[in-house]
């Protein structure tokens, strides 16, 4: 029962729902998520950590970089149902639509430029 409780808790936050919706469209690094959400890197990392614990998100390391995506392979039917529910239930939501437009802008910005802003925010280096 504990994995289900973690899943429900992870879904009970607007920021985490916005992350799930963004990851439905593209794999993203912390720099991109920080820019997209306009939140402090530590806040984004905390939200990502909860999503990882719940099994909703997966992490891929590439050198010193970490990329996040929706957990699709080797996941439970509950996680697959949660992804589907969130994406279908909010398909016509005005905030979700506005987020998608902004996400497209973030994705069209060169990754180096996005991460430079992130590096400046962290004041001295990227540690994902």
Notable characteristics:
128 residues, mainly alpha, Arc Repressor Mutant, subunit A, disordered C terminus
Q: What would you say this structure looks like, in words?
A:
By secondary structure, this protein is mostly helical. It has one domain: Winged helix-like DNA-binding domain superfamily/Winged helix DNA-binding domain (Arc Repressor Mutant, subunit A, Orthogonal Bundle). It contains 7 helices and 3 strands. Strands 1-3-2 form a 3-stranded antiparallel β-sheet. Helix 3 (30-37) crosses helix 7 (111-122). The longest helix is centred in the C-terminal third of the chain and has 15 residues, at 94-108. The chain is globular, with a radius of gyration of 14 Å. The termini are far apart. Mean pLDDT is 89; it is low at 124-128.
Neighbour order of strands in the largest sheet: 1-3-2
Q: What do we call the CATH topology?
A: Arc Repressor Mutant, subunit A
Summed up, the domain count is 1
Uncertain segments of ≥5 residues (pLDDT<50)?
A: 124-128
Number of helices: 7
Short overview:
The protein is mainly α and 128 residues long. 66% of the residues lie in helices and 11% in strands. The radius of gyration is 14 Å and the shape is globular.
Task: Chart the SSEs and their pairings.
Elements: H1 2-11, H2 14-25, E1 28-29, H3 30-37, H4 41-54, E2 57-62, E3 65-70, H5 77-89, H6 94-108, H7 111-122
Antiparallel strand pairs: 1-3, 2-3
Helix pairs in contact: 1-4, 2-6, 3-7
